[in-house]
Structures are given as C-alpha cells and as structure tokens.
C-alpha cells in the first residue's frame, strides 16, 4: 500500500497492511539518527523508517530583515515581528522569546495599525512540482501546516498579557486573533490552489493543554478561541481535505468540540498528561476520531531501553490501532536527548522488523 492509502485507512478506522507512520524531530535528533543509520539523504531516511507523510511549505520572499519562520524553528525576527534568541542546553538549541511586538498596545486601533504581514511574502508556485517529485515513486499523504490561532496571538502579545486580555480586554485579544486567523486561512487557501489541489491534509494547532489540565478554562476557550480554531479546520474539511490538530498536554474537556468542528486526526496524545491515557481515549472517542502520536517522549523514548520502547509501541498500537484509527508517531517531536537506538526501535516495531 502507499503512504496515502494507509493514512486514508486510518482516518476511516480501517485496517491496512500496517499502521501508518509519521516522523518529527528536532534538527539535532534528526542529524543524530542519520549518523546512526549512515544515511545522508533526508528522503532516504524517511523511507528507511517507513514514514507515510511528507510535509510541504511555501517559500518566504518577504522583507530581508525577517526570518520568515513562525514558531520555534529559527532565531531572529519572524514575519509577525516576534523576536527569538537561541538558548542552548547540553543537548540542543531552542529559540526563546526576546520580544513580543504587541505587548505595549492598549487599544484595538493600535492592533489594527500594526504592520501586519502580507500574503505576498510567500510563494507557493513551486508546490505542485515539489509534490509530484515527492510522489514520484508512490503517493504519500501531503501535509501543509496552516498555523496557530492561539499560540501566534500570545506570541505577539506575551502569554500572561494575552490570557489576562481574555478577561480584562477581550476586544484586544479578539482583534489580534482575528487578524492572525484571517491571514493563516487565506494563506492556506493560496497553498491549496497553487498546489493544484495536491495537498491532502491541513494541520493546525496550538498548545492549549498542560500536564495537569487545560491552560484556560474550557468555557473560556469556547467563548473566545473556539471559533478561530474552527476556521482552520471546518472550511478545509468541507473542501474534502483531511484535518489534523496539534495540542500538547491534557485537552480532554474539549475533544468533543474538535470532533464537532470536523476534525479527523488529533495529535499528539501525550500519554502522561491527565486524562490522555490511550485506553480511555480509545474507549471514548475511537469510533469518531483518529489518533496521531501516543509514544511517550517525556520518559520512554529518552530514558527507556530499546526493548521497553518496542513493548510500549506494541501495546499502544494494540490499544489505539485495534480498528485501524491510529497513526504511529512520538508524542512530541523527538528531542535530542533521545538515543537513536530507541528511535529505530520505535519505527522498526511498526514495520515488523
């Protein structure tokens, strides 16, 4: 079977020749795995571990003083005006906030007057050719990351300030969320159109959970953030695309809300977080939702043995994938303190090696 066929089977909660596989790592962990397997080429590595997914993105062509990278992937100023600085620990480098460009605003007018990014700062004209190349020897599930309608607003405002805005100045919080959501939705539409309809799955997400519960009350999320979240799920579901949402941590109280939005796949199923036990999730939602992730990256992958990894992967596949509705992946991007032997054990177990 092709990677695309396996993902489709998983979303339909049907059995395939094996459960589908996805792979995300930090740059350091990725380089370490390539050295361990003596593989230089990224595509060859993905084939070796059996990854059924390929990710595509636009090219940043905007102002030269910006990195064009949202999120946590680069130092410097991104296209939202957020500035990050590199912070290194003994295992790798992370990019921490150094400047929130909307931290100072006190009115909606100031939000509207901000120098917001332009859709024309991104080029998608290459996507169709890129996807044809990726699918040359067999079709994969092509994934495009739409963006984040909670994280990006608080990245711009500062987390504490944004969460207080939801209570004290909700008009400011919603003005920021609206501008961010509109941009990400319109940019995603451009990517779909200029890919020639060759994108299969739209991924969106924001971490709204912690180890013990949600970052904000479920009713507060529903009142102020749910509608924006839905704008990066529901329209694309109606277009016939697959949809996936990422949130670390415990988000049990709002999983039904995501199902109502038309969500196909929930990621990453952090098993050590409260209420996110795979067996419980499978019982409550397994007939309506496909799960992605579930292999513990907090304790098992960095600190377990290869045999322990194999045993837990086998157990999780049986729980979440008994009827096929499971995409095997780590419960977060694999971190650089994870031994490569454990990464190989994870993916070889799924492939029956």
Tell me what the structure shows.
The chain has 353 residues and is of the alpha/beta class. The protein has a single domain (3-59, 122-351), classed as Alpha-Beta Barrel (TIM Barrel). Helix content is 42%, strand content 15%. It contains 16 helices and twelve strands. It has helices at residues 3-11, 27-37, 42-49, 108-113, 127-134, 151-157, 159-168, 170-194, 218-224, 226-230, 234-238, 255-261, 278-285, 300-303, 306-320, 340-351, and strands at residues 53-56, 59-60, 76-77, 83-88, 93-99, 122-123, 141-147, 201-205, 242-246, 265-267, 290-295, 326-330. The strands form three sheets. Strands 1-7-8-9-10-11-12 form a seven-stranded parallel beta sheet. Strands 3-4-5 form a three-stranded antiparallel beta sheet, with no helix packed on it. A two-stranded antiparallel ribbon has the order 2-6. Helix 2 packs across helix 16 and helix 6 packs across helix 7 (159-168). It is globular and about 60 Å long. It starts with a helix and ends with a helix.
Summarize this structure briefly:
The chain is 42% helix and 15% strand. By secondary structure, the protein is α/β, with parallel strands linked by helices. The protein has one domain (3-59, 122-351): Alpha-Beta Barrel (TIM Barrel).
How many domains, in number, for the residues?
A: 1
Please report the distance between the alpha carbons of the first and last residues: 17 Å
CATH class assignment: Alpha Beta
The total of beta strands comes to: 12
| Architecture (CATH level 2) name | Alpha-Beta Barrel
Mean pLDDT: 96
Helix content: 40-55%
Number of distinct helices? 16
